[in-house]
């Protein structure tokens, strides 16, 4: 007799698990950095200095272990390297593929723009995708990209960013530019995604004045203008 | 390398026509990098690229050439000359690259050592133009003798320093064409001049 479950199992959404893993790692790493900057280790006498260094190592280990453990589970649930889906598709796996690619792309784009660390939520990206698909994205990929840009901003897909204090580009601008870049890179040929994001990020930066003030119609026009030029 | 040995670098592989590939930033960057690598290999010159600046130049250039694209298919050949010259104008205006100190053996009587950044940008635009014209029109291109004359490069550099548009006129001179010094960044003006020139020549026949 075949070994079958009497009830169909619900589909396990890996995005929240990945988000938890990444949040733990992000908080642990940021906490470690903050502690190191805040505490005058050099001024501490022994054995206090040794104890403090031991405490740092414990914090860092904790974050890394938590991150690795949950991340390993999440990665076993979903192929992390799949290409992004077309932005107008209603394929069953499109939501998860979109969120995975959005995470990878946003992390890449924000780093290129100057972020030292970034925390991107796949669950939020999935939520944005569902919102846009529920509204009916139509057949126009540029219009769908513009709607996704607005939705991703609204749901806060970029959760946290460590941004240099002396950066000339404000973080608020960088979020919008990174989203534009990844959505631009997702249009057209899905291959070579990482290089497409790199090029699209520099295009977005060059279009900073346009993107910063663009309404959805203008954003769609910008996507249509540049999607063949990445 | 001497100026009599100008060679085209191998362009990045693409399944698209070059006129399409050049309007993709990834291909454009790769082609530019290969040009610089060829110059380095042949002259010892090293040039560092500012990728962000290069992307900004690319975007500005793209918008200008799209805005001036002719509907008349008979204007395509002139248009490719124009967009190549315009690319040079934009590259030289904002210079997205910086040369390291000259190698010990550098002879500053040669254009590549006299003005490395200008030389690299000019060679890139010349080579892209030559490759596109060969692919689109099966046309061979040649450089005018004045390209190899250092005095041209003195004048070229000085003029571009005060008016970047003049780069387009020099580009035309280097490619053996009749330069438009008045409104070189207007394709319409370039076409009108060509038509007027053809009309005058016909009247003399």
What keyword list fits this structure?
heterodimer; A: 230 residues; mainly alpha; 2 domains; two-stranded antiparallel sheet; 9 helices; B: 205 residues
Task: Please sum up the structure shown.
The complex is a heterodimer of chains A (230) and B (205). Chain A is mostly helical.
Layout of strands and helices, then pairs:
The complex is a heterodimer of chains A (230) and B (205).
Chain A: H1 14-38, H2 48-77, H3 94-113, E1 117-120, H4 122-135, H5 141-155, E2 158-162, H6 171-186, H7 193-206, H8 208-212, H9 216-226
Antiparallel strand pairs in A: 1-2
Chain B: H1 18-21, H2 25-43, E1 47-49, H3 51-67, H4 76-94, E2 97-99, H5 111-114, H6 116-137, H7 150-162, H8 166-174, H9 187-204
Antiparallel strand pairs in B: 1-2
Task: Give structural notes.
- The complex is a heterodimer of chains A (230) and B (205).
- Chain A contains nine helices and two strands.
- Chain A has helices spanning 14-38, 48-77, 94-113, 122-135, 141-155, 171-186, 193-206, 208-212, 216-226; strands at residues 117-120, 158-162.
- A two-stranded antiparallel ribbon of chain A has the order 1-2.
- In chain A, helix 1 runs antiparallel to helix 2, helix 3 packs across helix 4 (122-135) and helix 3 (94-113) crosses helix 7 (193-206).
- In chain B, strands 1-2 form a two-stranded antiparallel ribbon.
- Chain B is mostly helical.
- The mean pLDDT of chain B is 92.
- The N and C termini of chain B lie far apart (45 Å).
- Chain B has nine helices and two strands; from the N terminus they run H-H-E-H-H-E-H-H-H-H-H.
- Chain B has helices at 18-21, 25-43, 51-67, 76-94, 111-114, 116-137, 150-162, 166-174, 187-204, and strands at 47-49, 97-99.
- In chain B, helix 3 (51-67) packs antiparallel against helix 4 and helix 4 (76-94) runs antiparallel to helix 6 (116-137).
- Chains A and B meet through helix 7 of A and helix 2 and helix 3 of B.
